Amino acid sequence: MKLKFLGTGTSQGVPVIGCTCEVCTSENPKDQRLRSSVMVTTEENKKILIDCGPDFRQQMLTNHEHTVDIALITHEHNDHVIGLDDMRPLIFKSGKDVPLYCYSRVAHEIKSRFPYAFADVRYPGAPAFELHEIENKPFQVLDTEIIPVEVIHYKITVFGYKFKNLAYITDAGFISETEKEKLKNLDVLILNCIRKFDPHPAHFILPDVIKLFEELKPKKLFLTHISHHLGLHDIEDKQLPAGIHLAYDGLELNF
């Protein structure tokens, strides 16, 4: 299986509009971060998208991706769902509704934001989705076992997702001891890390991530959902403890 980072930025993306800091004005492509999303390619070459934010169209074109077989949604914040309308070309081409897997709460929000996609009589050109409400239990789809990992993002629950010995978690500020059991001794753990300093009420910062790395002991840890406050990629990546890496848009992992 493969995982490609379509985007590794926060809700504002990097560069941030109007910001002239060294990260936002960097010419290094690794410092330019679209909103966080990944594409998982299964052993049967099926495509599993995790989150569909405002940069979805650009991400698909840049990475020469042409299909989405299913989408897993972590939570309902706009930087993770507002690109769903841009799935229309894929829906028109396949002639099929795109299956979305998410919490019941998130499903309700998606229906609220895209009511035209669920109307009894849809207007021509509307997207079409097949909602699957999931719980914190493993499920099988596309010949792949998917294990949800429940984390806390400020005051809401968010799903991360585990495939084989890789787990992807974004928008987390707390992981319970029970859920940590799913994350121990992985080959690859992907965690959000919004900045180096100053505690954040909804996201991990770098000291939190380093502590989790020491506790959970993955072979490799990649940071995502990165803001311009974390610093320049080429400088910060070299200063991280061995085994921890900054992800960047377009990075592909085999697992």
Précis, in short:
Keywords: Hydrolase. By secondary structure, this protein is an alpha/beta fold.
Could you walk me through the main structural features you see in this protein, from its secondary elements to its overall organization?
This protein is of the alpha/beta class and 255 residues long. It has a single domain, classed as 4-Layer Sandwich (Metallo-beta-lactamase, Chain A). It contains 7 helices and 14 strands. The protein has a 7-stranded mixed beta sheet with strand order 6-5-4-3-2-1-14. It has a 7-stranded mixed beta sheet with strand order 7-8-9-10-11-12-13. It is globular. The mean pLDDT is 98.
Q: What level of helicity do the residues show?
A: 10-25%
- Radius of gyration (CA) equals 18 Å
The CATH superfamily turns out to be Ribonuclease Z/Hydroxyacylglutathione hydrolase-like
Number of domains: 1
Which structural class fits the helix and strand makeup?
alpha/beta
Note the main attributes of this structure:
hydrolase activity; seven-stranded mixed sheet; single chain; 7 helices; 255 residues; RibonucZ/Hydroxyglut_hydro; alpha/beta; hydrolase; 14 strands; Metallo-beta-lactamase, Chain A; MBL fold metallo-hydrolase; Metallo-B-lactamas; globular
Provide the fold topology.
Layout: E1 2-7, E2 37-41, E3 47-50, H1 56-62, E4 70-72, H2 78-81, H3 88-94, E5 98-102, H4 104-113, E6 129-133, E7 139-141, E8 144-153, E9 156-163, E10 166-168, H5 177-180, E11 188-192, H6 206-216, E12 220-224, H7 233-239, E13 244-246, E14 252-254
Parallel strand pairs: 3-4, 4-5, 5-6, 10-11, 11-12, 12-13
Antiparallel strand pairs: 1-2, 1-14, 2-3, 7-8, 8-9, 9-10
